[in-house]
Every structure is written in structure tokens, then in C-alpha cells.
Amino acid sequence: MHDPLSHPSSTPAPVVAVVVPCYRVRAQILDVLARIPDWVAHVFVVDDACPEQSGALVEQQCRDPRCRVLRHERNQGVGGAMCTGFRAALETGATIVAKIDGDGQMDPARLAQLVRPIVDGRADYAKGNRFFDLAALTRMPPVRRFGNLALTLLCKAASGYWDLSDPTNGYIAIHRRAASALPLERIDHGYFFESHMLVHLNVLRAVVAETPMPAVYGDETSSLSVRRALVSFPFKLLRGFARRVVWRYFIYDMNAVTVFLTGGGLLFLFGLGFGAYRWYLGAFGENTQTPGTVALGLFPAIVGFQMLLQAMILDIMSKPDRSLQAKERDAGD
Predict the structure, then answer these.
(1) Do residues 160 and 315 lie in contact, with contact meaning Cβ atoms separated by under 8 Å?
(2) From its phi and psi, is residue 83 left (phi > 0), alpha (psi between -120 and 50) or beta?
(3) Per-domain boundaries in the chain
């Protein structure tokens, strides 16, 4: 089996596994599996209680010995399917696990390009980037384009990976060192899966890389409701942001960001609360507010807001620069 990812050095080629979540993809799944490169060692097809019996179709008509069908008795969502696939791939000893959707929107021919940063040791997690080319971006259905752009900034803030251009992209690959450290039982089982993964990876200080990866949009029907995502995702992102901040800056480490967040938050809330209270007395009472009283509420609010902005700047600059696999290799040496 020819492996285009092998190194000229004595380092063995990585064992790559692909997980294909399946739900209502009967018309596309066989073509997707046929186009998976021959250097991929394992292919896990996760039938997520597909009403079209995609798993049975694969078992009946796919002759690829690498393919193994895993079934859910009830639908768990794409995240649940991926967690099942991750566990199965890690049990086989796979070095890298990639996700290719069964609906044909992800070109398997680009898999080598996707996993290259991980193979080179530069990253622990790799994602496709559909937004590198404006011409390719215009080919995305307008509703999906609007939904993705509306969520991109929120995903950056929640995950802490401010340099990512397309954090919601689902064409992903991960090194086993990072995958093994993830709390798979706590990762969202729905379409929030990819964004939630980034939140947990930032807590682990994993390095994330992007590679140009235009999506392919045909006549398939997406199971993701953009309207529902725009309603539910912001609340999930806010919760993910709070979790990441607590773990990164108050549990795993305490640094200048901790000071700015604590001090800035207290000052801002005090100034806002005091100012609102004095405004209420002035508007509905007989007390006249002096300039000093106004300044007493305004000054801490301004200082606190500036400290929170500084915390955000430091968070943006706090980008992991060395992959987990490289650290593990150095520790072993």
C-alpha cells in the first residue's frame, strides 16, 4: 500500500483511520467510500440510526476490507457518531483519525493535504478552510454562507483560536495524542460538535492548523437547520467560552489574564451597578447627582472595561506554539 505521507527518515508512516458518520446519505455513501485513498488503514462507517439503512447498504455492496460498520440503535447526532468512531479508531492503534462526511461534501482526494500538518508534527488538529478563496465561497449556498459567517466570530471567542478563518468547518483530522486526552463523553453530540472540540482542545493547549479545503455542494439535503443553529449555538458558545476561561485561567494556570479578568470584571460591575443606582435616585427621587458622584460610577466602569479588553488581547496572543505530540516526543527523549 503506497503511503504518500511517509517520511524519508526512519520515522514510520502514521496509521490513518477515517470515520464516516452516516445519516440520510444512502445516495452518496458508496461513492464517498470508493474515493477514500488506499493508504488509509481503517474506515469506520457509523450508521447513526439512519432511516435509509446506510449501514446495511455498505455491508451489502461495499467490498472494501478496510470498512467496518458501527451502529447506533437511536440517533445521537454527528458528534455522537464521531465519538463512537474516535473510540473505535483509537482501539485499532490509529495515529491520526479523520472525519469525512457521508454526503459527499468533503473531497477524500484532499485528505493527504488535510493531515499533512499533523504528520509533520506541526499540529495536533487540522481543519479545512472554505473561506480562503472568495470565488469558492460564493458557490456555498447563501443560507449556509450567512449562517457560517454569523457564527465564525462567536466560535473564535469561545474556542480561543482567534486565528482560525473557518472554525465551524467539519472536515477535520486529529492526532491520537490529542484525541486520547479529550473527554469524549462531555463533547456535544449534535452539530455543535466541531466547535465544542475546539473549546476542549484550547484547554489542552493543542495546536490547530487550517488548510484550504473548498467544500462540494450538490443536491444533497442537509440535516442541519441554519435557523435552529443560529438560535442554539450562541448559548452553547457562551457556555463553552465560560468553561474555557475558568479552566484555562483559573484552574490550569493563573497569569495576567486572571488578574485582568478578575479586577476588570469587579470594577466594571461596580461602576455599572453604582451608576444605575444613582441614576435611579436622580430620576425617581429628589437627589441631584453631582459631577463627583457621576465620576464615581463612570471611572471604575471605564477602567474595568479597559482591563477586560486587555484580557481579551492577551487571550488572542496566547496561541499554542508547540504541538502536544512534539511535547510528548521531547519528554520521551
Answers:
(1) yes
(2) alpha
(3) 16-250, 254-332
84 in Cβ contact with 20 (< 8 Å): no
CA distance 247 to 106: 33
Q: Are 195 and 168 in contact (CB under 8 A)?
A: yes
Beta-bridge partners for 191: none
- Model confidence at 149: pLDDT above 90: no
- Distance linking the first and last C-alpha atoms of the chain: 30
Cα–Cα distances (Å) from 288 to 66, 224, 264, 272, 297, in that order, read 79, 55, 29, 19, 15
H or E element that contains 60: helix 54-61
Query: Three-state DSSP class for 224?
Result: coil
Cell digits of residue 15: 496509521
Q: How buried is residue 63: exposed, middle or buried, by Cβ count under 10 Å (0-12/13-18/19+)?
A: exposed
Q: What is the pLDDT of residues 153-189, one digit of tens each?
A: 889 999 999 999 888 889 999 999 999 999 999 999 9
Alpha carbons 333 and 331: distance in angstroms, whole number: 5
Summarised one tens digit per residue, pLDDT across range 304-324 is: 999 999 999 999 998 888 999
Q: And the C-alpha cell for 4? A: 504518500
- Determine contact, residues 21/102, Cβ cutoff 8 Å: yes
CATH of domain 16-250: 3.90.550.10
Give one DSSP letter per residue of 70-99, joined into a string. EE-SS---HHHHHHHHHHHHHHTT-SEEEE
Beta strands, E only, the chain: 16-22, 42-47, 67-71, 96-99, 125-129, 172-175, 208-212
Alpha-carbon distance 229 to 191, whole Å?
8
pLDDT tens for each residue of 200-230: 999 999 999 999 887 665 554 555 555 666 6
Sheet bearing 125-129, strands edge to edge: 67-71, 42-47, 16-22, 96-99, 172-175, 125-129, 208-212
